[in-house]
Amino acid sequence: MKDKFDLDDRIRHIVVVGGGSTGWIAAAVLAHQFKPDVCKVTLVESEDIGTIGVGESTIPPFIGLLRGLGIDEADFIQKTQASFKLGIQFHDWLEKGQSYFHPFGVLGQRLGIIEFYQAWLWAQLNGHSSELQDHAPCAVMAREGRFYLPQKAQKTPIGGASYALHLDAKLAGRYLRNYAEARGVERVEGRVVEVFSHDNGFIDKVRLTDGREISGDFFIDCSGFRALLIEQQLGVEFEDWKDFLPCNRAVAVQTENTGATTPYTQASAESAGWRWRIPLQHRTGNGYVFDTRFISDDEARARLLEAVDGKPITEPALIPFRTGIRTELWKHNCLSLGLASGFIEPLESTAIHLVTRGMDFFLRFFPGKSCDTELAAEYNRRMRLDYEEIRDFVVLHYCLTRRRDAPFWRWWQEEAEIPQTLRERIALFRCQGALREGIDELFHSPSWFSVFEGMGVRPRRYDARLDNLPAAQIIQHQETARAAIAQMVDTLPSHDDFLREHCPAVTINN
Q1: Which of 379, 411, 473, 497 could form a disulfide with 493 if both were Cys (CB 3.0 to 4.6 A apart)?
Q2: Which distant-in-sequence residues (6+ apart) come within 8 Å of 201 by Cβ?
Q3: From the CB of residue 236, how many other CB atoms can be counted at a distance below 10 Å?
Q4: What does the pLDDT average to over 94-108?
Q5: 8 A C-beta contact, residue 69 and residue 32
Q6: Is residue 407 part of a domain?
Q7: Region for 146 from its dihedrals, namely left if φ exceeds 0, alpha if ψ lies in -120 to 50, beta otherwise
Q8: In the chain, pLDDT over 90 holds for what percent of residues?
Q9: Which pLDDT band holds residue 399 (cuts at 50, 70, 90)?
Q10: What is the domain extent for residue 371?
Q11: What is the pTM of this model?
């Protein structure tokens, strides 16, 4: 007997609790997917509850989000005062004075069926040296301070490049709010003070300070670290990853711009953590992520202010956090997003990605009011894989260090617990440059190759099939491609010139 469709089980009203970038991304995605008469979306937020507002560095999937929503990219960049990002420059991670670059996009060209990295490795072992990042269009553009849209140069040496944005998180939240409200999302100003559930544990409604009550069929918890619905109401526990990622605090400050606007994020290792620099068109974001076992709040604040290269325009803000993930990100009729669902320190700028990824999976497994447990279980499984992949990739930057100049770095060498999944990846790579790649992972081979090389890890051997090829062919293949990238990049406008010509920042009145 066939199951029958139950039209009465359809979700007709979704309530998003919490605003900021997370809440308004969720609302914008829902507004794009559903007409208001099909599924109403209400977002509840309070102006009295501040947002962290420092998640200002994104990764390339964010561009996909904008395009998927039909947002004009240039307009978004102008109104969020954004700049372009080609990757991340890492300073002092392997050893003091050593730097490397993690680029977006491609890294070299295959030699027939053989991975480029293997051919490059052969060349290194046979005395033909070139820098790995000379073969990455994004790394070369970043090094030269230049930029051009790769989609407008697809059949050129930089066509395989990719990019993300540095943006003002509060302006981005405002932009997405305007987008969502224009498509029927109702915003309710107020603070949630009480949550009510049905006898089966499903959330029924929330009550605000003024007594108003808002009912819904499904609730999305975007209340940040408070986790008002998923933890305080539904009791879902938090799985702490402090043994893997012990940094637990950040101090952030905004400064005036100085010099050229670099098209990349800078991540500089410090004595008890690391420091970020994110340049926007109108200012620069700076922060120090640190481990409180090795430095005090006051010392971290002082070190950050000492290191910034522009005049501070805000007071330093202290942000406590914990790394980890909810044991269930979706329970009953409640989905947690952003800080309510978990957190991984921002070394690879993945916070906003995990929000959009969460919404992507939610739409794939969009439930009825009954919220089949099978859908929630699959969502939780897939999102956990994403969190663990990102966790392992971030730990990779730390656990290979050779630094012994501070207790923090000695702890990483002598006492840190490395996830077994990452230990296996590292061991596999050391053998022959092989990578364990899962299904639909965020970080692909160029990312792993770049960080392994930057952190001083070389495989013990290369792909034996390269010995079938004439040495001259292998070298020429690399040199021709490297020279073509360099020549092309030399013709491109500077990053600042491109911004001024195509998407200069504009000031938006409240």
Answers
A1: 497
A2: 234, 332
A3: 23
A4: 97
A5: yes
A6: no
A7: beta
A8: 93
A9: very high
A10: 11-82+167-240+324-384
A11: 0.96
Per-chain mean pLDDT for the chain: 95
Are 256 and 361 within 8 A, CB to CB? no
Residue 195 belongs to some domain of the structure: yes
Q: Is 40 a known active-site residue?
A: no
Q: 205 a known binding residue?
A: no
User: How many domains is the chain built from?
Assistant: 1
Supply the Cα-derived Rg of the chain in whole angstroms: 24
Q: Of the candidates 316, 331, 336, which has an alpha carbon nearest to the alpha carbon of residue 376? A: 331
Pair type for strands 334-336 and 218-221: parallel
358 in Cβ contact with 383 (< 8 Å): yes
Please, is 501 exposed, middle or buried when counting C-beta atoms within 10 Å of its C-beta (0-12, 13-18, 19+)? exposed
Alpha-carbon gap, residue 147 to 58, rounded angstroms = 17
230 inside domain: yes
Pair 136, 89: CB distance under 8 Å: no
331 known ligand binder = no
Exposure b/e, 120-131, CB count within 10 A at least 16 = b: bbbbeeeeeeee
Query: Is 423 a member of any domain?
Result: no
User: Active-site residue among 85, 152, 242, 369?
Assistant: 85
Q: Cα–Cα distance between 389 and 366 in angstroms, integer?
A: 24
For residue 230, give the CATH number of its domain: 3.50.50.60
192 labelled binding-site residue? yes
Name the burial class of residue 10, with classes exposed (0-12), middle (13-18) and buried (19+) by CB atoms within 10 angstroms of its CB.
Answer: middle
Does residue 85 have a known ligand-binding role?
A: yes
